[in-house]
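Archive entry: two folds, one per protein. Generate the first.
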Amino acid sequence: MGSSTRLLAAVLSLLLISGCAPSYRREDVARSVQELCQIEHHLDVSARQVGDTVAVHLRYEGILERQGNQIGLASNANEVLGNVLEVLHRVLLSSQPMMRFYLLLVSDPKVPGAYLTIVRYVEDVRRANANMIPPTELFARTILDLKYDANMPIINFDQVVLNDIQLQQFLSWQLAKRIQGHLTTALQQQGLSVADVGPCQGDFRNGEFVFTLNVNVPADSAKQPDVTQRIFQEATGVISKVLAGYRFDAFNAIRLLHPSTGRSLLLPRSSLDLFR
């Protein structure tokens, strides 16, 4: 884990709210977040509501830094992101009924085309604030995505197409991230150095969670069938545990795809209990 990621992990894991806060009307959430960030912290923030999702754009000069071909968070990111997230959590947890998701988009005019996206399920924040889940689990449930596209600098928040995030969609993103991290650790612990784990992809369509497991296994490896089976088992264990933690059962099956071998696995929802 790089220094930028460790910094962000600390901010996202530990920043919770305490005590009483004024209540905010649901229809005023975006405006309240925008005004509080500007008044209390003098931050250039724009906010919009789309269905059950509130999206916030933080535009802050110097929050990102580029070193050669690498882009990461600057040393001041801790305080700046902490201020925005504190306001977001304060408003969201004090509004009724609560919004379901928030998306924070961070950009830096000095690094055009680079942006960090943070997505959270508000119920996860509430549970962490009530000590129902530990900070480490809250961070594991957080979607982080740092991208760079020189042809798509974000100048105005209105140019960003926003959709109301659905729980199935959020879970597919989260699970893809968690599967990748788990496979990287698990396969190394099992001494399977022949497997090279890359970014996994998740989607929800036609009632199925579909995960593409980007794990390269040499075609001439004698252990290939065994390795592929272990990949499926490890991934299924993660999926079963996370969905059980959310008590989510609004799906029919999970489908695992392993492009490097062409193999796939389809499991009905009823069979997931076997992998917990």
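Generate the second and append.
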Amino acid sequence: MSERAARALSIAAFVALIAVAAWTTAVHLRDRVRMPDAAELADAAEVIRSGFRQGDFIRHQPLWFTDARIGLDGLPFLMSRRLDEYDRHRFSRMWLLSSRSHDREAAADRVWMSNIEEVFSSRRLRVEVGDVVQTAPVYWDGFTDFGAATVYRQNAAGSSRVCDRVIDGTTHCERYNEWIHVGPAVREVDDEPRHCIVANAPPDGDSWRIVWDDVELHDTMRFRAGNAFRAQRSDRGAPVHFSVHFGDEEVFSREWPIDELGFPEFVIDTSSRRGTRTSLEFRVHSRDHFDRFFCFRPQIVGPSRFER
């Protein structure tokens, strides 16, 4: 390449960089102007706090506008890009705090709501509250009922010991371990923050056994399971094996490769066992536990109220 051509290319690249910077600045300023200001947000937060009650949660749109959470510390938010059906039953009412410039995103969330009331309105901001529309009845949720589970750590010879040291809601075997424990948490799975039961594979070839002793079956058992993003970013460790047992019967078994993405749902038809009570057991094992961050979310549900 000649010196003249190289100089022309450098100038073109510089001009392109300036154009991109100008466009980015313009977009930022436009968003800043159309988003609610601090005074609007403070007034909205006061309305939400004064009317908030047990069983409520908050959703704000757009999700990237984190200023919407100012003044609402300690209250529950759902932050996934799409509201998760597995969380619907946990709440009775939803507060929707939305910028008027992003009504399309807010409209997608309103599908979850009925008896909607607008309780705050300003030039750039709207706050609505409504009942959460319930679909399939959830009879049991391992995430919310984790406190009733018994956690065992089983070695390769089949000998198990109970793990009962609970720290900040998670269960450890004997001493605290920042990485190796079992319990409900929020983890980034399938590029979404998910409420799930963390069960990072234990070392020494051991397995976790998470057991609920007496659970009544209904029409369906459904669950999601998968690698957390922290696992997917690492090439250490071996695949994770996950299985589900009704009593002594294994009803599901699958292996997750170390780089598998997603949080897929699996469904087991239990309608023929409706009304029977059984122990539910979930096992997690990996031949090499390094960076095998794994979580799952099990539920027992009935048919959708909109299917009958």
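Annotation attached to the second fold: Residues 19-30 have pLDDT under 50 and may be disordered. Residues 174 and 308 are 49 Å apart (CA to CA).
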